[in-house]
Structure formats: structure tokens, C-alpha cells
Amino acid sequence: HDKALLRAAVAARELRRLDAAQDFVRRCLEAEPEHAEARQLMEDVESLVEQEAGRDLAGRAKTARAKLQESIQREAAEADVSKIPKAFAAKDQTSKKGFKAFEGYSEKRAKPSERAPLSQLPYHNMGLPPDQVDMMDSFFQEMRGRRDEREQASKEEAEAYDSLKREYRERAVQDVAEGRAEPLEEVLPSEKARRQQQEQQRRLPE
Predict the structure, then answer these.
(1) Would you say 68 and 132 are in contact if contact means Cβ atoms under 8 Å apart?
(2) CA 197 vs CA 140, 145, 186: distances in Å
(3) What is the reported pTM?
(4) pLDDT tens, 162-197?
(5) Are 143 and 76 in contact (CB under 8 A)?
(6) What is the pLDDT of residues 11-27, one digit of tens each?
């Protein structure tokens, strides 16, 4: 009888029906607790069960991380972090209240010196798994870096434009004064409009 149970257990193991294999071996050990082959087979089956569980857990964790990252990137497009709660599917009121701390984050656009450290952002105190916390840290750090780059580029462009405009105006004034160019209001339409406005204001009765 025990040999038949062992053969059935081996067959079930090969078919990856590990629950059935465990049941057959258990019944064999109940009949003969010291059966060496049955004890070894039980260890083998339990090891396979643990491996299967580990692979399943790792696979689900990988899938969950991928979905989380995809959701964060989609929901936080254009740094619209106010929608990040959807990426976590927060169900309890505490989590929802914590996520509300993100609202307006992208609108405030705090200067780098005024920003709170990443470690002080609300998601660090919401009981999230460490890998999700790390992912959020990376996300916000990347968003901050991109925003700083855009703002710095805009600032440099504005400064360059102002500098060029001042240089052009100064050169035009000098050329007019030295007779090398037409009057400034003929060269710059904006200057002509400004002069006309000044003339109109002078003509108004006091």
C-alpha cells in the first residue's frame, strides 16, 4: 500500500500537482512514520512548493511594480501629482488624507531651497512597501530635476533676450545720434508707439 502511495506521489510531483503529491506522501507517513523514502520525498515536494510560492510571489510583485510605475507615469504626466492616489488605489480614509498633501504640489513650484526633503513627503509615513517608497522618491526627484532644467532654460532665454534687446536699443540710439540711422521710432515700432503715447499724455489738460 505504501509503495502505491509513493508511486502516486511521484507521479503527482512530476505533473506539478504538488498538493496531491503532499497528500499521498502524508498518507504514506501516517501508515509508516519512519519510511525513509517517503520522508525524503516529502522534503522534495515541500521544497518544490516553496519554490513555486516564491516564483509566484516574485512574479506578482514584479507585475505589481510594473503596473504601479506605469500608473504613476500615466497619472503624473505633466507633473500632475494630484492624481497620484489612483496609482495606489488607496481605499482607506487615512491614505486618502495623506495623499491630499500632494494636491497643489505641482502648482506651488517651490524653489529648490524651499522644497521639503524627499524623506519628509507624505508617502514615507503611509505604510507603503519599501520598493514603492523608493520608486516614489525616484519619481519626484526626476520631476524636480526636469522642472529645474526647464525653469533654468527659460530664465537663461529671457536674460539673453533682454540683453540682446538692450544692446540693440543702445546701438540704435547711438546710430541715430551719429546720423548713421533713421530716428529710433522709425526703426522700432514699439518705440514709435511709446513716443505717441507720451505725446498724447502731454496734451491732456491737467
Answers:
(1) yes
(2) 49, 45, 15
(3) 0.34
(4) 787 777 677 766 776 776 655 555 555 565 666 677
(5) yes
(6) 877 777 778 888 888 88
Q: Residue 197 — left, alpha, or beta (φ > 0 → left; ψ -120 to 50 → alpha)?
A: alpha
Beta strands in 107-201 (DSSP E): none
Give the model's pLDDT for residue 78. Answer: 45
**Cα angle: 127, vertex 144, 141; to 5 degrees:** 45
Q: Cα separation of 104 and 119, whole Å?
A: 19
CA angle 170, 175, 176 (to 5 degrees): 100
Residue reference for cell 501629482 = 81
Give the torsion sign (CA, 142, 144, 149, 151).
positive
> What pLDDT, on the 0 to 100 scale, is given for residue 3?
75
CB 9 within 8 A of CB 24: yes
Using CA atoms, how far apart are residues 60 and 63, in angstroms rounded to an integer? 5
Query: How many whole angstroms separate alpha carbon 44 and alpha carbon 50?
Result: 10
Q: CA 125 → CA 21, 98, 99, 100, 103, distances in Å?
A: 44, 8, 11, 13, 17
Q: How many CB atoms lie within 10 A of CB 136?
A: 24
Domain boundaries, the chain: 1-49, 150-203
Q: How far apart are CA 84 and CA 99, in angstroms?
A: 8
